[in-house]
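Below is a filled-in request sheet from our internal design queue. Each sheet records the structural input a requester submitted and the sequence that came back. We keep these sheets so that new team members can see what a complete request looks like end to end.

REQUESTER: design group, bay 2
PRIORITY: normal
MODE: inverse folding
CHAIN LENGTH: 213
BACKBONE (tokenized):
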């Protein structure tokens, strides 16, 4: 049996954390390893517990979710962060994704959909809804990364197209008949050549430059 996905809950409302824990703990493949009541505590707990996925609220005291994301990136923490936001706070999603979030869910998300989102980001997917992708693209400098695409090999361009479709390394490896290790190498090269920080930025770059169907 595969090892359970380790999840850290970061939310300033105890009732919310309790509700999330109650639901997630009945999932056979998900284990809640800890909780935090604000962003600063969340960063400390993430460093201590090394979770696979962090479920992070945006608006919190002491340190908000966006700043916590930046701190985790600076520390090189490997956890995938899934931001929890309300529909009315959609504008806060853009800075969160820029700071390194792997995606987001709304606070009224269906419990089964939440579990699916956790599994998805853990598998390497980027969760972007169309309206948020458009917001990100509209805020990007039109010249950002322009011309760098010519330095990509044909195989790297294929991998980048797969990233833009939201596929994980395992799925890309299967689609292109490559090993996962080779795909990881291609992804690293793509990020380096395009001077991008993560898969989310790579996916957006590919969308802007017409590399998706």
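RETURNED SEQUENCE:
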């Amino acid at each position: 049996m595969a090892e359970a996905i380790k999840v850290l809950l970061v939310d300033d409302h105890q009732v919310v954390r309790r509700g999330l824990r109650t639901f997630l703990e009945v999932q056979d493949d998900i284990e809640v390893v800890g909780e935090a009541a604000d962003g600063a505590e969340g960063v400390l707990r993430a460093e201590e517990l090394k979770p696979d996925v962090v479920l992070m609220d945006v608006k919190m005291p002491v340190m908000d979710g966006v700043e916590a994301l930046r701190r985790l990136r600076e520390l090189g923490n490997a956890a995938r962060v899934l931001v929890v936001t309300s529909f009315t706070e959609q504008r806060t999603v853009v800075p969160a994704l820029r700071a390194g979030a792997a995606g987001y869910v709304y606070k009224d998300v269906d419990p089964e959909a939440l579990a699916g989102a956790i599994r998805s980001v853990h598998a390497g997917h980027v969760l972007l809804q169309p309206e948020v992708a458009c917001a990100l693209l509209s805020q990007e400098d039109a010249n950002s990364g322009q011309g760098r695409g010519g330095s990509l090999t044909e195989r790297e361009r294929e991998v980048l197209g797969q990233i833009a479709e939201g596929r994980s390394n395992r799925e890309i490896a299967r689609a292109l008949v490559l090993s996962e290790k080779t795909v990881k190498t291609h992804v690293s090269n793509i990020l380096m050549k395009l001077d991008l920080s993560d898969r989310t930025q790579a996916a957006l770059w590919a969308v802007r430059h017409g590399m998706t169907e």
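SHEET NOTES:
- The mean pLDDT is 84.
- DSSP finds ten helices and five strands in the chain.
FILED BY: M.R.
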